Amino acid sequence: MEKVASSEQFQASIEASSLTVAVFKADWCGDCKFIDPFMPEVEQAYEGRLTLIEVDVEQVGEVSQEQNILGIPSFVAYANGKELVRFVNKLRKSREEIESFLNRALEVYQTLEQNATSKQE
User: Fold this and answer.
1) What pLDDT digit, counting tens, does each position of 1-46 carry?
2) Strand 51-56 and strand 20-25: pairing?
3) Are 25 and 60 in contact (CB under 8 A)?
4) Long-range pairs of 35-44 with CB within 8 A, sequence gap ≥ 24
5) Which residue, of 1, 5, 27, 75, has the greatest Cβ tally within 10 A?
6) What is the pLDDT of residues 86-97, one digit of tens each?
């Protein structure tokens, strides 16, 4: 997972026309550490369909504030610079919940892509 080191890098990542999911987390966050062991497998399972980026809320705090991130870990899906859907709550997130969110993000993204294509025809 690519780590975002600046506001500019974050902006460039979410401006992509493809689906990008930002994972907001921090080194001190226990629930963030809980997901670390299985996230590489999750990322590999979704390879080619979406891009996961990591945003450390301590390192790039202004991005977290701009995106209204109040709890971590938080997952926010973007395409073309617009937020599509987010998975935010105070509970520890399981692999199944994360994969369910990623599937939902893909559905939203694909629906928007189909609508954009049909409008162009």
Assistant:
1) 999 989 999 999 999 899 999 999 999 999 999 999 999 999 999 9
2) parallel
3) no
4) 35/73, 35/93, 35/95, 35/98, 38/95, 39/1, 39/98, 40/1, 42/95, 42/98, 42/99, 42/102, 43/1
5) 75
6) 998 777 899 999
Query: Taking the mean position of all CA atoms in its chain, how far away is CA 113?
Result: 18
Instruction: Check if the beta carbon of residue 55 is closer than 8 Å to that of residue 64.
Output: yes
Edge to edge, the sheet with strand 20-25 lists: 2-4, 51-56, 20-25, 74-79, 82-87
- Residue type at 81? G
Nearest to residue 50, comparing CAs of 114, 3, 102, 93?
102
Give me 81's structure tokens.
């610079």
Beta strand 82-87 with 2-4 is unpaired
Spatial contact of 113 and 80, defined as CB atoms under 8 Å apart: no
Give the tokens for residue 106. 């893909």
